[in-house]
Amino acid sequence: MHPFTGLATREDGAICACCRSHPVGFIDKESLEEIWNNDTIRRIRRQVLNNERPPECAPCFNLEDQGVESLRQRHITNRIPESRINLYPNALDSLGEDYTMPFEIPTMELKLNNLCNLACRMCHPMDSTSWTDWSEVKEFYKKEGNIMYAIVEEHGLESKPFLDKFQDSPEWWASLEKNLSHFRRVEFAGGEPLMDPQHYRILDMLKPYGHQIELKYATNGTTLGISKGRTVHEYWPHFKSVAVNVSLDGIGDVYDYIRSNSDWNLVVKNIKEIQAIPNISRVVGACTVQISNILVLDKIIECFLNELGIIFHSHRVEYPNVLSAQVLPKELKDLAYHRLEAVKSRLHRFKLCKDNPRLIEYTLGQIQDNQNYLRAKDQSDLWPDCVEFNRRLDLSRQSKSFIDVNPEFAKYA
Questions:
Q1: Mean pLDDT of all residues in 260-289
Q2: What is the pLDDT of residues 310-334, one digit of tens each?
Q3: Is residue 78 exposed (0-12), middle (13-18) or buried (19+ Cβ within 10 Å)?
Q4: Do 2 and 84 meet the contact criterion of CB atoms below 8 Å apart?
């Protein structure tokens, strides 16, 4: 559904078919309007309608081959309200024979720069200005041939971390303004969107059409606004509804370890404040499953559904490979698998599931995705690199050690 219903931006000026895909264009070469019907996106539309696999969509197909539901699959079924098959059932009506479509994009996913106050372990300088110790671990990205190594080098992010290709692009802003009346859904990510002045500039542009627009956020939850009245409390009531995904990769010490510079108690406080805003449609705990939280994922699920009253949603670290849960030694991988199996039988007792029984099925699917992922590949040969990667960041950040946070790893380290 994505190539027919929206586009996504990336901090380096790339425009993608969705937030997972490889680029279909760059704003320093084409306007947003031109990219919407360029040769690449028209080829992708043709390929997906012919049940082919466009190379730009490889991240989704890679997950599907491992038995994990992908973003692509979520949006071509009607199991969740925000599936694009539900939002835009007539999307193909305006598709031309040459696979062009009118420049009337209903959904836009926006990552405008990498301004961020956190330095999460699985992140990198392109997504956060706070990632100041890239030099300590960049060799692991280079070793696995990850494109992020080349992007950081190309833009000099190791020494000059701020990356913003949109602020000074008149063509970008002109294309965005031309499409304002057609938006039905605008999604913000980052960096951290709630601390980004450009985010509020766009909300000002969208406000006249706010009655028809649902906002969606991927936020770290550490702030609810910036100075001079630009806070969620002033802006969000102007829109049809607001869905908030708060990135929560653990609870307590595990959360603080993975999401460097953050504070678990502050984020919990802000979640409660968000939940009190009248037009919030849902609050989701978005958990990036990885080496340092996979053994306590059952406890994370229980905390979200029983204590915080938020939906559990997960995706998985695939790069750097050394932080993937697939790196675990077999004995630990089996332990993680069985803990996830055990939590399935308790879901019906969790408060949010009692109030919304349909969440049981959804959460079971999330759990099964992570179990399938654990069993799909054996990357345990990377375990020594995993230990070394985390040791280097521990020293650089003067944090608790990898083993202190994950005591069950001690006999394998």
A1: 97
A2: 999 999 998 899 999 999 999 999 9
A3: exposed
A4: yes
